Amino acid sequence: MPGPPAPRLALTIGDPAGIGPEISLRAAAGADAVLVGDRCVLEETARRLGLDIRIDSYKLEDLAGGFPAQQAGHVRLLDTGILPRPVPPGKACAEGGRAAFRAIELAIEGAGSGVFHGVVTGPINKRAFAMAGIGFPGHTEIFAARTGTKNFAMLMYSEKIAVGLATCHQPLRSVPDSLTTARLVEVGHLLDESVGRLLGRRPRIAVLGLNPHAGEEGLFGDEEERVIRPAIEWLQRDGIDAEGPLPPDTAFTPAALARYGAHLCLYHDQGLIPFKALAFDTGVNVTMGIPFVRTSVDHGTAYDIAGKGTADPASLRSAIAVARALLAHTV
Predict the structure, then answer these.
(1) Is 287:140 a contact under the CB 8 Å cutoff?
(2) Structurally, what CATH architecture does the domain formed by 151-287 represent?
(3) How many CB atoms lie within 10 A of CB 123?
(4) Peptide bond preceding 245: is omega within 30 degrees of 0, i.e. cis?
(5) Partner of 118 for a Cys bridge, out of 178, 228, 245, 293, CB 3.0 to 4.6 A?
(6) How far is CA 273 from CA 118, 181, 210, 298, in A?
(7) According to the CATH classification, is domain 1-149+290-331 in 2.120.10.30?
(8) pTM of the predicted model as reported, rounded to 2 decimal places
(9) Domain positions in the chain
(10) 215-232 b/e with 16+ CB inside 10 Å = b?
């Protein structure tokens, strides 16, 4: 008896001057997905790297009834048609920022209309976005704004470690004032739901403190008692297995990683430093809370190796696998 049909995924190629086009071509050749980006960029990338890949272009309306069959050695492309010619690899530019942004918008449009079940995104460059006048600091904020989602958060996931962020792309000095009990409760619920789908069971969540030694009972700050502990108690009343606030410097020891299925971190580097130390090549970025599945690589554009044929597509392949797992509600 045949299994359920494969989920329809869109793969944006990311910044055309980075490694995104290369890893996208390598990953898409073995995936039932549609690339989203500029045809001229992918053709040039395939030529430069000596990849024997044929590109079949489609419009969004061509994909509405399902994906056309994909022949061996071919990839499907939703052509954004932004760039008249490829941009040089290895350097941020406004043209690349605009092209990357348009691919994201088109993928979101397709997911919103049901053409795609989920979106997997390649790496973008915030400097290229700024040069293009695009006012978003990252993917997470774009997806939230374009879907009208207010309650969202970033999850970084791997089989070794999973971290959810209460705050993300903002100056460190603004973090304490951004933390509220209600926000921590929101992220705790999102973590419980998303990581639960990936693990096949509800996780025990470690909620981290903000200050050294989790405040040391008020000696080093009062956020733990005033904001964080009430959030933990609220989550526990909601039936979520949350503990803390944990001292951040011991929250990621081997024993802690074995005890907890997810960590609720309060700011970007508190979660991303341990995550990338443990899962840099296989980690996946997940946007929690939006109406459809969105995953991404956990690395940047790697301009220093762009165009050289040495980029590793492992994180993108992991992102595809996690997107499928989320859509299947299992691992």
Answers:
(1) yes
(2) 3-Layer(aba) Sandwich (3.40)
(3) 25
(4) yes
(5) 293
(6) 27, 24, 15, 12
(7) no
(8) 0.90
(9) 1-149+290-331, 151-287
(10) beeeeebebbeebbbebb
